[in-house]
Amino acid sequence: MTIKAALHPARLRRYATAALAALLLLMAADTPRASTTSALAALPSTMLWAWERPEDLRWLPPGVGVAYVAVTVELVGAEGRLRRRAYPLRVPPGSVVVPMVHVDAAWRTPPTLNTIQRDLIVEQVLQQAQRSSARVVQLDFEVRASQRAFLREVLAESRRRLPADVALSATALASWCAGDYWIAGLAADEIVPMAFRMASDDSRIRTLLADKGAFTRPRCGAALGMATDEAPITARSVRRYFFSPRAWDQATWRRIQ
């Protein structure tokens, strides 16, 4: 015979209150902050990613923005190294430009993900935010499953220290917004799922987007990243980011129109 002890009503209420508080915190984290909404709303609906290479985008039409790699943080073992942008970026006068902090975690010597490395990334996010006339800064950090808690911590600390009116955008693997959804509560004001270079997930995610018109997970439907050298994706995302494996030119731009 199994005897189950009943919870005392007072203890049951405490558990229920704690569970409700955790749920409310999660919901709050999945709701864009009102103070950053205006910064995101001011971003163009089409953004080009400018990678670490010479980019002359002076031919861009009005109303197209650029998110560019401003600095790369390399994490190797217990160390963190900075590699600042070394190549010119030319854009039309008055263009909306968003600085990106790209994080590269070594595979052969995986990072220990210590507080020094965390603080190095956060400091770069804060520095680039100060230079962002768009009041938006983006973090690009493709983590392994074992590094997810570290990314969550980096975003939380960055968001805590950023000015209230500066929006924090973060890229995400497309799978994180589909079957491998783990990003609920991430402290980012914009999530940009990258629907390219999806390997074995490609067919499944393309089918999902074709059927649903967008990622349906919380916070995953406002923006979408695509690549110029892959089949186009039709989605209802508010904002589209485009990646080109080669330096941008007008011919590449015309192909994605």
Uncertain runs: 1-7, 15-29
Give the total of beta strands: 11
Secondary-structure arrangement, i.e. CATH architecture:
Alpha-Beta Barrel
- In CATH terms, the superfamily is Glycosidases
Distance between the termini: 70 Å
Number of helices: 6
**What radius of gyration results from the CA coordinates?**
20 Å
CATH class category:
Alpha Beta
Outline type: globular
Largest sheet: 9 strands, mixed
Alpha-beta classification: alpha/beta
Percentage of residues in helical conformation: 25-40%
Q: What is the mean pLDDT?
A: 89
* Strand and helix order: HHEEEEEEHEHEEHEEH
Strand % is: 15-25%
CATH topology: TIM Barrel
For the record, the count of structural domains works out to: 1
What's a quick, concise take on this entry?
30% of the residues lie in helices and 25% in strands.
What topology emerges from the helices and strands here?
Layout (H helix, E strand, L loop, with lengths): L8 H21 L4 H8 L4 E5 L4 E2 L7 E13 L2 E6 L4 E2 L6 E9 L9 H16 L5 E5 L7 H14 L5 E7 L16 E5 L7 H11 L10 E5 L11 E5 L6 H6 L2
Parallel strand pairs: 1-3, 1-11, 2-5, 3-6, 6-7, 7-8, 8-9, 10-11
Antiparallel strand pairs: 3-4
Helix pairs in contact: 3-4
Describe this protein's structure.
The relative contact order is 0.13. The termini are far apart. The chain has 257 residues and is an alpha/beta fold. It has one domain (34-255): TIM Barrel (Alpha-Beta Barrel), CATH 3.20.20.80. Residues 1-7 and 15-29 have low confidence and may be disordered. The longest helix is centred in the N-terminal third of the chain and has 21 residues, at 9-29. The radius of gyration is 20 Å and the shape is globular. The protein has helices at 9-29, 34-41, 115-130, 148-161, 202-212, 250-255, and strands at 46-50, 55-56, 64-76, 79-84, 89-90, 97-105, 136-140, 167-173, 190-194, 223-227, 239-243.
